[in-house]
Known about the structure:
93 residues; 4 strands; 4 helices; elongated; alpha+beta
Amino acid sequence: MSAEYVASRQAAGDLRSMREIAEEYNDMVIYPDKVRLNCYYYRHYSFVKDIQMIFCTVLGRKMKYAGGGDLRGGVICGTGDCFISAALEFRCG
């Protein structure tokens, strides 16, 4: 994904080095997504959800949430605290 991002930025006329563009992608896309996922996991961890995540990973499926919830829109991470806008439950789909 980062290679595609770098290529698209360079094609759009970005004159920075590949490394600088890749670091931007990490800082703006990858890192915030990791923080959201880690905050959600920290606040909602359980043995059962761990097993569900393992099964979805082994089966190559994405995690879905009860009620059609989406982590990207529902998790707000502030200074040391995270809030979930709706109660979400894992389902493998």
